[in-house]
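Troubleshooting: if your tokenizer reports a length mismatch, compare against these two reference records.
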Amino acid sequence: MTSRTRMNVYFDPDLLAQVEALALRRQVSKSAIVEAAVASFLSGDSADRLEAAMSRRLDKLGRQIDTLDEDLAVLGETVSLFVRIWLASTPPLPESAQASARAKGAERFEGFMQSLGRRLATGDRFLKELSRDVDSLQDNPSQDQRETDGEHP
């Protein structure tokens, strides 16, 4: 039988309650729980646990980057499509109207920037709104889709 040395330690009451609960569940003494925890802390396996935790965090970051990449692709395509349609549908202005158009454009741009600032301050983002709109369209098919499917109002 191995000899043991007594040691008095102080625990936070919440931590002690967790140790007691674990000891009851595993049907071992509190000393055995504390001894195993200290041995684990002092052993070399903590490096393995740290590596595993780091790997999980890196995996999570990788998934978040993939999501951001998809969001950026959607935004790029959205802006590209908007500009393409706007350029195709907006006729050029005559020379005499260009000065007033620039002034009106500056005024509209200022309004746009203020609106964008308010929207960003609320935290409601275009891609979240787009996702909600797409989901609601899938839940409630349009009149055209119902007629295509053979349904009548």
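Reference record two:
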Amino acid sequence: MTRRLLSDAVLVALALGLGAAQALAQQAPRAPRAAGPDRSAPDRRGGPPVIGCPSLANYRMLMRDGAAAAAAHLADPKTDHLGCAAMARTEFTGIVDKVTLGGQSYDCAGVRGTTACHWVAPGTLPETPAPAKR
């Protein structure tokens, strides 16, 4: 008799467990997330996206074969983007640093929401006015 009660208890527990799993699987659908800015789409206000990297070495590697090849590389989700991204011009705050390396100039542009700058091609973004001295 004890065996019969034990097997009935197991069957009841299984039935309750399966019912709970089905109930959890049938949750109400969630509302779609608010769409954030599509960084790969052209920005109507500022022109095409700008390719930038927080590391100058990675920027130089990415841009070795030209901007079109770099854009194709960034468009492939299976490749390593080296921390680089194609970002809307509105994401940048302006040029904060410049460097010339091997006869090639590079600008580092500030990015909204972060203290790091991203290296970009010179002349891509407007110069930032110098802060007023007190």
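Descriptive notes for reference record two:
- Confidence is low (pLDDT under 50) at residues 9-44.
- The longest helix spans residues 2-25.
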